[in-house]
Fold this protein.
Amino acid sequence: MTKVKIVYASITGNDEDIAYVLTEKFEELGMDVDMSEVSQTDASDFEDADICVIASYTYDDGVVPDEALDFFDDMKDLDLTGKVYGACGSGDHFYEDFCRAVDEFADVFEEVGATKGSDPVYVELAPEQADIDDLDKFAENIVAKAKEMDE
Ligand SMILES: Cc1cc2nc3c(=O)[nH]c(=O)nc-3n(C[C@H](O)[C@H](O)[C@H](O)COP(=O)(O)O)c2cc1C
């Protein structure tokens, strides 16, 4: 069974909601899903998965959340060649660097050899129906890419 690891960073719950939406969708697609909060997760868990997903909010001046920094740094030491990744997250257009942490995570995935399964999904605050549709499509794209690589 294809393994999906979803790691989220969330203070007010928006990214946790995103992670739940994705968990449900990946399970519907027949995947074996494990979801956890970033500060409780070892970056090396990504090495045991086939599909690696991040859902992170962005903090002050467009940075990766404090509690995700160790995970973020540890990711740089991984080799995720052959894995498919997806990066998404919630932000607020009130801030100049909208959802920048999502792009920062995507950059690290690229650096360590993971293959992009979908364009990022950026959610304005809490996920609404249109965002849920985008997240469902995001999961579908990622699964399709993983299947393509398996052939
Ligand atoms: C002090 C502070 C700084 C923030 N900076 C940014 C930012 O630079 N870019 C952005 O897109 N969102 C920024 N946000 C908004 C959060 O990313 C947004 O509220 C997000 O939905 C929180 O996700 P969570 O509910 O998963 O914690 C900031 C929020 C706070 C409180």
The pocket of flavin mononucleotide is lined by residues 10-15, 57-62, 90-92, 95, 97-99, 125 (CB under 6 Å). The chain has four helices and six strands.
